[in-house]
């Protein structure tokens, strides 16, 4: 409610007042205040949008838990696939090093 009140007050300060010599400065300050309040309101609304509504009933709770478990499984599958790629890459590096070592060893024996 405070955000709405600050928007309202800033908007009221933007309106010209008869016989007020500082009305231009006051209006400029009000525009900055209004802009800041709009930014805060935007942040607040984005936070509300990110919140999930609370599930209602046993079916909704169970459905939400299933979705969370499926997402967790997908994350774990991606991690496993990444680990397998890393293992295959390191196995190839080790194999190359072993071949290089054998080649170097046999080249030294032939001299």
TrEMBL record:
UniProt superkingdom: Eukaryota
InterPro entries: Mediator_Med28 (IPR021640)
Family: Belongs to the Mediator complex subunit 28 family.
UniProt entry keywords in alphabetical sequence: Activator, Coiled coil, Nucleus, Transcription, Transcription regulation
Lineage, uppermost ranks: Eukaryota, Viridiplantae, Chlorophyta, core chlorophytes, Chlorophyceae
Entry protein name: Mediator of RNA polymerase II transcription subunit 28
Residue ranges the record marks as coiled coil: 59-100
Pfam entry (one): Med28
């Amino acid at each position: 409610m405070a955000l709405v009140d600050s928007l309202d007050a800033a908007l009221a300060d933007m309106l010209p007042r008869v016989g007020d010599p500082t009305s231009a400065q006051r209006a400029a300050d009000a525009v900055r205040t209004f802009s800041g309040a709009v930014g805060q309101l935007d942040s607040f609304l984005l936070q509300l949008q990110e919140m999930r509504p609370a599930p209602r009933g046993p079916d909704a709770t169970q459905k939400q838990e299933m979705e969370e478990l499926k997402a967790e499984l997908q994350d774990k599958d991606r991690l496993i696939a990444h680990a397998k790629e890393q293992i295959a890459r390191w196995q190839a590096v080790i194999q190359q090093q072993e071949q290089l070592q054998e080649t170097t060893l046999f080249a030294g024996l032939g001299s």
